[in-house]
Design goal:
The protein has three helices and five strands; from the N terminus they run H-E-H-H-E-E-E-E. With about 120 residues, it is an alpha+beta fold. Strands 1, 2, 3, 4 and 5 form a five-stranded antiparallel β-sheet that branches. It is rod-shaped and about 80 Å long.
Length: about 120
Amino acid sequence: MFIVNKMCVYLSGGFLLCLLVGCIGHIDRTNETTLGKYSKQEIFNKLRKQKTTKREVLSLLGRPNYPYDYNDKNTWIYLSKTEGKVLYGAIPVDFNRSVMLKLVFGKDKTIEGIEYKQ
């Protein structure tokens, strides 16, 4: 009886240790772009209407997803997507996040319009 009780204590302790230390899951970041690294507030702080130029946007976010030939176009679209679920202990955490940023530039090559969707 003593051996059975001792074994139950070790097994339950090991199970609790696995719950506290381990995490199970997968996060797919293959479609995550530079846009996904910034919050909505950071984007609006860095990109200002009538001030931020195409060059500054390229420096901050890189090449837009659409259009492919972005140099001559005045509407740029950036997309970022992260998918995944992780189990931390007994708490599930959802990492699904999709972000779309649409920038419209004027003739002076500064931003005229910003649309952000999450």
